[in-house]
Amino acid sequence: MTIIDINTFNTLKESTDAEFIQELINAFLEDAPLQIQRMKESLQKKDAELFTRAAHTVKSNAATFGATELANLARELESMGRENNLEVGNKLQVMEEAFEQVKNQLNELK
Amino acid sequence: MVISSEPARLLIVDDNKINRMILSRTLEQQNHIVETANDGKEGLEKIRTGSFDLVLLDIEMPEMNGFEVLEACLKDVELRQIPIIMTSAMDELDAVVKCVELGAEDYLTKPVNPILLRARVNASLEKKRLRDEQRKLFRTFATKEVAEELLRTGFSLGGKQVIASVLFADIRSFTSIAESQTPAESIDLLNEYFSLMFDAIINNGGTVNQVIGDGLMAVFGAPIFFEDHAEKSVRAALDMLEQLKVFNKNLLSQGKNQIHIGIGIASGTMVAGYTGTQSRAIYTCIGDTVNIASRIEEYTKEALRPLLIDNHTRLGLPESYQVEDLGKIVFKGKHNAIKIFAVSD
Question: Nearest CB to A53: which of B17, B18, B62?
Answer without folding.
Answer: B62
